[in-house]
């Protein structure tokens, strides 16, 4: 499938996955504004595929938000103090880690540890003001959808050699999994990155990047001619629609979370802020 148009739109508004950089967290203290305001980054949307809809969102989340979300993923109650109108967070990544082995859903609806998914996950509280801001941005992006139709945010961590092999975010038979809804859309954003080869792969989507603008190669793996691989770019997100208009799953949205390879001073490690089911189909 050749991409015939380069669609680029800029907005002022909103989240989501994370790859840890080699820079020490103690070198930079994230500063988060106080109050209920949600200053949104100015981001750019580029359409990777029209059918199925897959979009790349550049600068979807700020560096300060990324650092903050990583910290609350690593500690149950992040230490904070008020100074000069902002919250200052201290580095406590190794204190009270919240990560647990990521789970997969079996065909009979059970949550299980599966060899296809070897990452670990930390769920974020929706009561947190920064998490609320990010959820609101994801809602606005989709036309102000009801926040009750969105799942909680989660940070997913991949250590060296870990991955999530090809899978769908929708269920062929939600009722068999004791679900009353299905995942209509997904947001997947990069908080930080330290790897030469990592990202999200769609094996059933192909684009002849040789006939497209070379600037795409900053965002995708242009060498992959038989599949679409979106590079992990800090602050950016991938958004896609999982279902057809009739509510059935779109088999072309098969995707995988690739392992981190070729990092810097740290061992290869990737962490994603994930909002599976950005919109639920009733």
Automatic annotation (TrEMBL):
The keyword Oxidoreductase applies. Its cofactor is L-ascorbate. Residues 52-273 form the Prolyl 4-hydroxylase alpha subunit domain. One of its GO terms (cellular component) is endoplasmic reticulum. InterPro entries: P4HA-like, Pro_4_hyd_alph. One of its GO terms (molecular function) is iron ion binding. Residues 1-17 form the signal peptide. It comes from the Eukaryota. The keyword Cytoplasm does not apply. Keywords: Dioxygenase, Iron, Metal-binding, Oxidoreductase, Signal. PANTHER family: PROLYL 4-HYDROXYLASE ALPHA SUBUNIT (PTHR10869), PROLYL 4-HYDROXYLASE ALPHA SUBUNIT DOMAIN-CONTAINING PROTEIN (PTHR10869:SF242). This is 2OG-Fe(II)oxygenase.
């Amino acid at each position: 499938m050749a991409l015939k148009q380069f669609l680029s739109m800029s907005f002022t508004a909103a989240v989501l996955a994370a790859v840890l950089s080699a820079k020490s967290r103690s070198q930079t203290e994230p500063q988060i504004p106080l109050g209920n305001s949600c200053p949104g980054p100015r981001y750019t949307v580029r359409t990777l595929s029209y059918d199925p809809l897959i979009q790349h969102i550049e600068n979807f989340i700020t560096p300060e938000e990324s650092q903050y979300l990583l910290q609350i993923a690593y500690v149950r109650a992040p230490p904070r103090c008020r100074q000069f109108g902002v919250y200052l967070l201290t580095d406590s990544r190794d204190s009270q880690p919240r990560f647990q082995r990521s789970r997969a859903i079996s065909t009979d609806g059970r949550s299980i540890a599966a060899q296809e998914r070897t990452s670990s996950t930390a769920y974020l509280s929706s009561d947190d003001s920064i998490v609320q801001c990010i959820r609101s941005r994801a809602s606005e992006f989709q036309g102000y959808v009801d926040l009750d139709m969105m799942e909680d945010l989660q940070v997913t961590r991949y250590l060296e050699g870990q991955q999530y092999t090809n899978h769908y975010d929708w269920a062929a038979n939600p009722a068999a999994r004791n679900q009353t809804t299905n995942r209509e859309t997904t947001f997947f954003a990069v908080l930080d990155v330290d790897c030469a080869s990592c990202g999200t792969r769609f094996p059933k989507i192909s684009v002849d990047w040789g006939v497209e603008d070379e600037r795409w190669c900053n965002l995708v793996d242009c060498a992959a001619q038989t599949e679409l691989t979106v590079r992990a770019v800090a602050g950016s997100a991938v958004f896609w629609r999982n279902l057809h208009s009739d509510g059935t799953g779109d088999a072309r949205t098969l995707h995988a979370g690739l392992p981190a390879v070729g990092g810097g001073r740290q061992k290869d490690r990737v962490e994603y802020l994930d909002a599976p089911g950005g919109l639920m189909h009733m």
